[in-house]
Write a structure and sequence with these properties.
globular; 5% helix; 8-stranded antiparallel β-sheet; 1 helix; 232 residues
């Protein structure tokens, strides 16, 4: 059985994390919360690290099932950027919750790094560039991790975790591990920018409601807690 390293941390929230739910895992590098401090131009980071996200192009606040997030693509060029890659290298846990309006979508939902480095998670058939309903992982320049795992429609969370070693990539849907794979080490994120709702031509058409990035591995219990936190 593979035992991967993670740092065990109590999931208590600091009083300074105004919009971060108490049941979310502690010590995120970034936490963007649905309906929390979201304007037409800025999505405030709830982690306490000041990594606020900026709405770009046609991206705009929008509500689905009573939950307010950011409508991306929205006519062709709307996404959200964070001017940081959080000091990440080859250990990360990141999760994004979004509304999947159909089973025929494509695009990257969360990307750390530039078009030449880093990693991302999104939806497609075998890559972010073809339509489908599968969760897809990307180690930029190195390899795609296409899967046959359907996400479903409606609101769902997608997770991506790299831990030290090969490294070992795990993908998650709604807090449950659905795929794992040994891959070559990634090119560490550079360029100082992270993307939500797509980058370059890989834009996702839909509402993104929550985003979390951790500079460590999460345990299975923490993945469940994170999905539940994003769903409340």
């Amino acid at each position: 059985m593979l035992v991967y390293p993670y740092r065990k941390v109590m999931a208590a929230a600091s009083s300074a994390l105004v919009g971060m739910p108490a049941n979310a895992p502690a010590t995120p590098a970034l936490y963007l919360r649905h309906s929390a401090n979201l304007s037409t131009t800025l999505w405030k980071d709830q982690s306490g690290n000041g990594k606020d996200a900026v709405l770009q192009g046609t991206a705009a606040p929008s509500t689905i099932s009573g939950t307010t997030g950011v409508l991306c693509n929205n006519g062709g060029n709307g996404n959200v950027i964070v001017n940081s890659t959080f000091g990440l290298t080859n250990v990360v846990s990141m999760c994004v919750r979004a509304n999947f309006s159909s089973a025929n979508l494509s695009g990257c939902l969360l990307k750390i790094g530039s078009t030449n480095d880093g990693y991302g998670v999104g939806v497609g058939n075998s890559t972010f560039d073809d339509v489908g309903n599968h969760i897809i992982g990307l180690m930029e320049v190195i390899a795609w991790r296409g899967t046959s795992i359907n996400i479903g429609t409606g609101l769902h969370s997608l997770g991506f975790m790299l831990v030290s070693g090969s490294p070992y990539l795990q993908l998650y849907v709604d807090g449950v591990s659905v795929d794992n794979y040994y891959m070559s080490a990634p090119y560490s994120p550079a360029g100082g920018v992270s993307y939500i709702g797509g980058y370059s031509t890989r834009l996702f058409s839909g509402i993104v409601t929550d985003v979390a990035v951790y500079p460590r591995g999460l345990s299975s219990t923490e993945w469940t807690a994170l999905h539940n936190a994003m769903s409340t």
